[in-house]
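Our preliminary data section would be incomplete without showing what the modeling component actually yields. Below, a chain of 362 amino acids is followed by its predicted structure, encoded as tokens that our downstream tools consume directly.
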Amino acid sequence: MKHALRKFSLVALPVVGILLAAPAAHAQQAVGDVIKAGKEDANKLIRAYIEPGGKAVGHGLNGNWFNSGKAMELGKFDVRVFATGVFTPEEQTSFDISKLELKKIRLASGESSIAPTVFGGKEEGPEMVVYGRNPLTNREEELTRFNTPGGIGFKNLPVPMVQASFGLVLDTEVAVRFFPKTTYEEYSANLWGVGLKHGLKQYLPGISAIPGFDIAALGGYTYFETTADLDLAPDPAASRTAQQQQAGYYDNQQLVFTTKAWTASLIASKNLKVLTVYGGVKYSHVTTDVNVNGRYPVTSFQVTPPNRYIEDVVDPVMVNVEDSQYGLVGGLRLKLLIFSLYAEGTMAKYPSATAGLGIGFN
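Predicted structure:
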């Protein structure tokens, strides 16, 4: 269980150093501990652990689509590299297991019900016991024990990004984000996004008379997906059918973390020669799906001998996380010849700060 959910944290965070790191251990028996408790308990526990990560990733992906209220002119462009740090609220660093209403997983005697989320401390959480009913005795028996996993040890999630922006006609600018599918050991990841900014100054005669002042509307969408291969083998002490003993029968086990993030903003800016100051209002919406796909062997009880046998569970985990927030955003751009430096901050439920470097003609 500990390593299975920690693997969720590794998959969930789009930070190159974490994303490409080999896991501390394979999630074989750990995933089995979760699944033994049944789909309902497994989904509740995994949701509580990973939910803050699903939200923070999406809000981070929605950062720094713009740095001015003025759309670039036709033929102008820039390429930017930046990172957005998302700050997770303190109350999102832990969760109360007793409020999950688990059916087959219970706290071990004397254990606290407070467990870390993915953004909690690195120390392991409370010890849990998984129970199953033995039909021969009609009594609940302990199947396994595990500790809930520790978090990554910090609340600030950095989300790196590369973006290219191009000026079009009619005071319109398009931005593109792209990270080709990359595979490292059992991990793979890909990202793409598109944004559109349109100048509003042309429709406001009073505003157009103010030199250096601009206003624009912007919308952006980003898709991010990470997958990790799993390898959960059957319990060798449990009975299996001939089909379950076939080579490759339990292949194609996979964890999939998908985030879809879209944002809309109204931006105003003032150009002061080499310095541009901007601010506005921002809406951010996030949808994250965490799925464990494939066929998994689970040890179960039966009346006829052998008492323990392997039962297949297909696609045992399907967790959906959604979140929306409004925020106030402000920032500045310092332009030195073809180079630009950026800094931005957002005041919201999940606040963020962005810094970056750009090069281009705009």
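The chain has one domain: 2-361. The chain has five helices and 17 strands. Preliminary results of this kind motivate Aim 1 of the renewal.
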